Amino acid sequence: MINNLYKMFLGSSPSWYKNTIIAFLIFNPIALYALNSIGLNGAFFIGWLLLLQFIFTLALALKCYPLQPGGLLAIQALIIGLTSPYTLLHEVENNLEVILLLVFMVAGIYFMKNLMLNIFTKLLLRVHSKTKLSLLFCFVAAFLSAFLDALTVTAVLIAVGIGFYRIFHLANSGGDFSVKNHNIYDDSTLSMEGTEDLENFKSFLRDLIMHGVVGTALGGVCTIVGEPQNLLIANIAGWEFIEFAVKMAPITLPVFIAGMITCFTIEKFRLFGFGNHLPLRIKNIFHEYNNFELSKRTEIMKLELAVEMAVGILLIIALALHLAAVGIIGLGVIILLTSFKGITDEHDLGDAFKEALPFTALLVVFFAVVSVIADQSLFAPIITYVLAQSVDVQAPIFFVANGVLSAISDNVFVATIYINEIKEALDSNVISRAQFDNLAIAINTGTNIPSIATPNGQAAFLFLLTSSLAPLIGLSYMRMVKMALPYTIVLSIVGFISVVNFL
Fold it and tell me: b or e along 206-216 (b: 16 or more beta carbons within 10 Å of the residue's beta carbon)?
């Protein structure tokens, strides 16, 4: 019975990982009791220990999704008194807009995938220069992420990548484009030419997807809806859509330009594994597929694309004018798209929420850990030290501190910690409103820009790495780190210089 229970615990996670989590759960209450019994502030020390343990679960998200081990630590924190259900509820209430963003906006954009798939497919077919194509993939992904959420755009990129791979695999297996159930994992069906072209195609597709997913980070930092932590920070700071974009612009615009220059450079000079070109024979396959698709496109399909485009324009207008809370606008998108596309079955609606709800649940666990930080004043000494420094260096310090932590941990979690601390400093009149604004900008850009260093830092990167596309195109953890490295170095440096000069 015990053996079976152990096997069930955290599913297929490695035994050493399971044993580590069990050790955490056993050690924490014992250590808390021992420290309190000798007159020390046990809650403070164990609070810090629990925070490090939680970061451990985020850093090893590939071994086990952090919701389960992190959730167990959060439950334990409530049981042993490191925080209270009331504090947790207060954190959730304060960040309700962020939760609504994830639930409704991400689900709403799910019904716009056809339009975005169409956009990326047209780019592949109409742009012949690989360097121009890479720049456009990066730019379009950035633009879409600024209005539609980076995670959702990444989901589209994954769908595009799998779609492209399927077309290549099908054509080189001698199948017809109308075949529905083709096995893209069986390379034995490929022709001799297809086998020779396979690695070239994988490399080409890998380049485009990485440029695109970095683009989601470049655009995601610019607006309220780009990343969940953006809205979280904007809510606390009291910024609306346009105000947020304007305040971030002195940092985000130089970073965006630097990102596009980096994209051009690594493609042109074939650096860090980029610069792979598509053979003419494969390009012809995609042109044949496009002709096939156009021939079977019905009037209804065309109308659906028109509806998606119209709702997309309305979405941008609604966000820009702040007609309602972001999550409510997302709900409006769901209602409009499903109504006019004839999607009325509960099952079809449910599919849209699959991507968003696991991360939404994880977000509430984040808030539980943040509650521990708040109740035990864990970051008070650090914040006191930083705020004691010259006003000129406070923002750069926050940028670096957030960047380092966000590279190994989730940036929503990191942003939540720091923004709450400086809000408390503002409420206590320790800092001025102008200082608060500058520090909030530094926190937002710090959690977004350097976090591309590893898949752990960006939810979009982790989503790509754990997707079915990654093994198809040979995208491993270390390869993602290597390919993101030039972007990480350039964007972090430009971001830091911008913070120093403009804040």
Answer: bbbbbbbbbbb
